[in-house]
Amino acid sequence: MTNKIITISREFGSGGRSIGRLVAEQLGIPFYDKELVDHIALESGFAPKYIEEHGEHAPSGSIFSYALAHQSVPGVMNGLSTADFLWSIQCSVILQLAEKGPCVIVGRNADYILKDHPHCIHAYIHADEDFRADRIVRLYGESESSPQARLQEKDKRRRINYHHYTGRNWGTAQNYDICLDSGKLGVETCADIIVSLAKK
Amino acid sequence: MTNKIITISREFGSGGRSIGRLVAEQLGIPFYDKELVDHIALESGFAPKYIEEHGEHAPSGSIFSYALAHQSVPGVMNGLSTADFLWSIQCSVILQLAEKGPCVIVGRNADYILKDHPHCIHAYIHADEDFRADRIVRLYGESESSPQARLQEKDKRRRINYHHYTGRNWGTAQNYDICLDSGKLGVETCADIIVSLAKK
To answer: What is the third-level CATH fold of B5-192?
Structure first.
């Protein structure tokens, strides 16, 4: 057992979600990934699909993406833009989940939102492009024609979102307790290391 | 036993050197830290003390540091500046040591020099300033008056040196197989994790 909250930040296609699921299974604690989206949907009134697509993407990375977000939903809530409103709900939901007890939370800048939480392990998972490209084609069914471009696009959006809301640079080792190369070390080994840390 | 070369890059005061020593002891393989300096001294003809002080510092971070380097040693070798000459010796010595067999190498941009070596684990050790300031005062006998300033100065020099010779940003998770926060996880735990990876 563990009394730890484990946050997993990850590059697209690195297997961070699979690692998170393995860690949660091995520790017997809740795993929040899609469930997190459902919680945010419930609190915000937005559709889960919209949150899934926009929750980790560039909030104001371009005028184009910002305009699109406003066309898709009713507009501005309590003086906040759609993106900022979603961010405030996301913070609130993640803080509530962490209060409930040990769990694994994947993505959604949870490392930053819970940076002052006393019982967290913040992990960052990355891998080289070849490993990730193979993975997204094989496991996510992404197009085989240009998986590299898809990786770069997704990572860029996450990077912009992270920097916008945290002021930090994504992938900087100092922001995490542990960073692991899943391509080099393997998904199972990464999970094992995080489990052993949580059990200490 | 292991057939691995382990490189340990570290923030000043993070305990990276202690972790490296523990890993080498537990695996029963050579540990190159001061010994590395002696090898570079032998190959270059420079005094170990000079190499220790300048080998990981800003090569051309300022005109001042560059001028100082040239006043301290005979000048330019084979058309190379003192710093570039030392770098070339450092690369050659590290590549030779890696050829000899399993070992732990601390610092000196060995992660970059051995980035294409097939049997390496590249680790980066960091910790927050409070942990490191306490450590350098307690263990290295650094002045208690402004350890933070000393940390920042040393890290800045290493960062400039690393970027100058590798083109990479220091402390970026993607450059390493594993990054660990020694302040949060503990020096012994960090060593245990690296040992278990090396044994796989």
So the answer is: Rossmann fold (3.40.50)
